[in-house]
Amino acid sequence: MARADYLNDPNAPKANSIAVAVSVFIQDDEGRILMIRRTDNDLYSIPGGQLELGETLSQAAVREVREETGIECEVTGVVGLYSNPNHVIAYDDGEVRQEFSICFRAKPRGGQLRTSNESKEVGWVKVSDISALSTHPSIELRLKHALRGNGSTYFS
């Protein structure tokens, strides 16, 4: 399903739903960040997706990383809580979702990199190479907060 992200856009469609989503910031031993290139909007992102019935937030984070990247991980903390009503995501089925996402910090624990139906590219990216990738400002914000490394949790 295709999607379009709108941030601070007065012409954005009005939200008609909200759902709990998770995203996951993972660095390897070399300090590289696990990134995907999404199939639905062609942008680079950290792994993530929607909470499913019957799972905890951290279980959703681990599942989404595994599904999108092939990497097993362990959640170690929270980067931030993101709930900007001026960021909406419009899907081609008519749903327009207001952003609500919890970004976790995690450690890789194994697995092999692979793509999925949600990720056309998967890889470990050097921090210095991130700015060359086409990412949404909401992902740039999560990366900024995760990389500042002061231990505080961002919330909006």
Polypeptide structure, described:
The protein is an alpha/beta fold and about 160 residues long. The protein has one domain: Nucleoside Triphosphate Pyrophosphohydrolase (Alpha-Beta Complex), CATH 3.90.79. The chain has helices at about 55-70, 135-150, and strands at about 5, 15-20, 20-25, 35-40, 45, 50, 70-80, 85-90, 95-100, 100-110, 120-125, 155. The strands form three sheets. Strands 6-3-10-7-12 form a five-stranded mixed β-sheet, with helices on both faces. A four-stranded mixed β-sheet has the order 1-8-9-2, with no helix packed on it. The radius of gyration is 15 Å and the shape is globular. The relative contact order is 0.28. The model has no long low-confidence stretch (mean pLDDT about 95).
